[in-house]
Design brief:
Strand content: 5-15%
Radius of gyration: 17 Å
Mean pLDDT: 97
CATH superfamily: Aldolase class I
Number of strands: 8
Structural class: alpha/beta
Order of helices and strands: EHEHEHEHHEHHEHHEHEH
CATH topology: TIM Barrel
CATH architecture: Alpha-Beta Barrel
Number of domains: 1
Bound molecules: 2-phosphoglycolic acid
Helix content: 40-55%
Distance between the termini: 21 Å
Number of helices: 11
Shape: globular
CATH class: Alpha Beta
Amino acid sequence: MSRKKVIAANWKLYKNTAASNEFFTAFLPLVAGHDRDEIVICPTFLCIPAAVAATTASSVHIGGQNLYWKQEGAFTGEISAGMLHHAGCSHVIIGHSERRQYFHETDDTVNLKLKAALEAHLVPIVCVGEVLEEREAGLTEDVLRRQVQGALRGMSGEKAAALIVAYEPVWAIGTGKTATPAMAVEAHQVIRTEVAECLGDDHANTTRILYGGSVKPENANALMSEVEIDGALVGGASLDAVSFFKIVHW
Ligand code: PGA
């Protein structure tokens, strides 16, 4: 089963519109005609309209970094799945560990957000991953299973066909510590087994599972060469056009 790899950039709280435009001016010529992998860039909400305009004539997709599960209403400060879709986003990151850590997101809110994203025809990138203490206590498998199960509660394979999962060990995010390809593969297999239990084998075989956590031009090739690793979710190294281009060209 060959799955097209997805190389996604998570810009977090970096880049204003001017910096975002500068990035695309430098980046788009570098990836013109690159169709081996799907390229997704997730800027801040404010930069989405300009990023969508900059990339319409390219194969680069734009995604949100978060969403709220209600369509509309008195929810100050929130953005809905439908609004992201209407603005030209095709993807959305859900349940990033920074959202879980700093903004109290739980497996239950991830589940609500996932359902809302799918209903609005957005491709969800659901993040899961253990913290260092959990890995050291031998709990990685339990944590991954619980997070995947929680995210997919009440979902059918058909409904969740577009699902992408990102395995992001929290201890590897922004720390310069990367999981070895073997560690990532092992975790991806746990995730795929759990996806199979929730959605069925056929859907588990087509679900892309990305690795995230200090992916850099220097380690991208070793990670992306693994059949079990279906792409990367890249933070720090995606902010520079040349560095992200090198990862896309792993
Ligand atoms: P990093 O971030 O590449 O800077 O470690 C990855 C992420 O948080 O998605």
